[in-house]
## 1
Amino acid sequence: MALIDVRGVTFGYPGHRAPLFENVHLRLDTDWKLGFVGRNGYGKTTFLNLLRGILPFEGQILSPVEFGYFPFSVDCPDRSTRRVILALKPEIPFWRLQREMNLLDVKEEVLERPFSSLSGGERTKVLLAVLFTEDKFMLIDEPTNHLDLHGRRKTAGYLRQKSGFILVSHDRDFLNGAVDHILAIEKSKITVMTGNYDTWDAV
């Protein structure tokens, strides 16, 4: 069992009186599928950025794994999707990408179309497929924004078969279908519990 160990993390943005997070302690199993919940503005994306090491903070975050992050920006979207992906991940094993795309119901012919011509849902699923070709702990921030109901159900089922991620979403059904633990921001603290969104909401 590998653990991400968050030790006494405190963080606040300059100019704010109170810290966003204060003395947060967490131990997260890298196999857990974690849904991350809390009101808008409470710091969910900020906490993901602390894990990624792109913001300064007090305390320690010890991780035996690297982090992957969704969403990520795409340069030159008028190029074919294949070329866009190669620019992002030059060493990507396309057999593995095709397997992940198939699990998300994305046809291989999408790779030959301009990335800019893909629907929002297709782009989301292609980028998630790219992400999951890597053996990292995934930080997934609001993936449902461009997914229709079928796409949300398919993507939730896809994530349910994975291990090792934190998923930010306001979609209750999506979280229920994808996660087995919940991280919850409550004021300046973060708590973790076993179960899905409904389990947490019933407490």
## 2
Amino acid sequence: GPEAPEGLTVLQLVKQGRFPYQGLFSKWTEMDEEKVQEALRATHLTELKDRPVDSLSGGQRQRAWIAMTLAQDTDIILLDEPTTYLDMTHQIEILDLLFDLNEKEGRTIVMVLHDLNLACRYAHNLIAVQDKGIYAEGK
């Protein structure tokens, strides 16, 4: 997965998700803080917010990166292999979180998964790609 700069805390990483909303002279707003706190709660990272990202387990680290994307507050979330290198328990944890975000908040989640069984379990719509083309698609 992606690497955070050494010593960067979970809170600092999640705050980076608000970067697109910061202008040259704009200040951190109540809305920015609210979105960061919501993202920490949604990913169950509030208690770990002061921990360095590089000290977290693989599943916690993935949740921290997902929290950063949630703080951006977009309707569509794009993820490239969010479960790669995680054990099955952490894979299920991440996919359950993303499923809940879709079901409860109505966010569209578009992701690449190489585990067809997990993709079938969680996806509302699935596109299977093989040899640079669409092999199958459906609900």
## 3
Amino acid sequence: MPETPIETPAGPTPPAATTVATGPISQTASIYARLRTAVLELDLTPGERLTERGLESEFSASRTPVRAALLRLDTEGLVRRDGRGWIVAPIDLDEVRAASEYREAVEAAAVRLACRRASDADLAAVLELLRSLSVDDDVEHGAKGPNVHVELARLSGNPFLVAGVQDVVTRLARTRWLDLRTAQSRAQVRGEHQQILAALEARDADAGTRAVVAHIRNTTERLVASLNADRTRFKARGLTIVGEH
């Protein structure tokens, strides 16, 4: 599969760093951020091949920062080694199932703690974030929707739960874009988020746990069914989907 070029913003080339310490680190961060965005927004499609040499040319960079950026993306499950090169990680439906089980445990724990620890002002801030998401805008939902789950985890006051939720929603970000293709699915997600927040406002940990688990399961079932049904069409668009049939 041909490599997809990544647009480089127009403008003068920034001056070279004056020290070895800051130059490669800054360049690595920039390459990582741009590759990560391209993968999460499906500009680089699941299964697409990448080469270090091609990325060196694309970013006008040496191999060291390119490889460092790829290794960081590898730890996030977004790319993986493929022989002597790299590929964008395929969407793995078995991994989606496993991630769903993990989310149920972590997010249920976060909701229980949030019911005890979150202030009314904290809950109002998350509710405002939810209200800001338009059901008519799939791009906005895809980009900002995961923040609702991260902010809910933050209400727990436990940084380990926050990190766990942040990691798993990152790994599932590409599937979220595919799940939110219709206004109906976006409206369903929004309604489920509102149920979770209503339980938190009532300080009802049992209702909050039921709501977040139901939301995760509904999202997973809807997504897996959609990807299984449309696997051939997605393959024609260059998206590699593996796992469950």
## 4
Amino acid sequence: MANLIELFIFFPLFMVERKKFNDSLTMGLENLEVINSQLHGWKNNKKILLVIGVIFTVVPAFNFLGLELAGAINGSLVLKTRILFTLLFGFIILKEKVTKLQMLFSFVLFFGLTIAITQGSFNLLEFNFGIIILLINVIISPIGHSFAKSLLDRSEITSFQIIVIRNLISFIILFSTYFLFFPLENIKLFLDPINYFWFILMGFNYGFGLLFWYKTISYLEIGKAMIIMSFTTIVTTILASAFLGEYFTYFHIIGMIIMIFSTIIIIKQKKE
């Protein structure tokens, strides 16, 4: 439902943007080549947009399932390792510069995660199924973001277009598969009016989060943007302890300190 809410929010903005582009072409303003590319460039990138749509159909579903199984604190720490894979795919797909020190401290960051998840035992069996799901998630999501940034860098698409297209693809896939596997089960979720408050809240939250994200990577390297976003882990941990009653241990603190220190080193390297 969040996908549908996002479509309701951003499709009108998408149409306003297209009208603005068409008006600019009609009036013969400057940068006509760029405007024409942003207006019609998506037609030459249908396969990439389909891949992006499929990736970000899987990612939210994996997020919900993984966080439910792993818990909010462990889950948020796992999601912080996206930095490692964002740097990797930013280098492979976008040819962004990655230093040896950045890669070293990306693995140090993963070491801090291991301390937190295993509570210092380093027993990898402590990585429950939810953590495995989230690790798969953090591997595939940077691929989608890297493809999206490549289109933005070439001015072949806009932030509004990406949001509308990926949410349309996600809605079609999720809606059809949900009723394929659960034709009658959980139908009461859609009959309870209280749930629509949460659907709308999620739609606004995710939608404008996406808009700010795509606007950010339009101006910054994707690795730097992901590093900045990684500090949400601290907020998630505090909220999980305060509202969900999850137990925050000394090993969580040690692991988080290592991860934050690693992030600072990576940021410093990016600035240099």
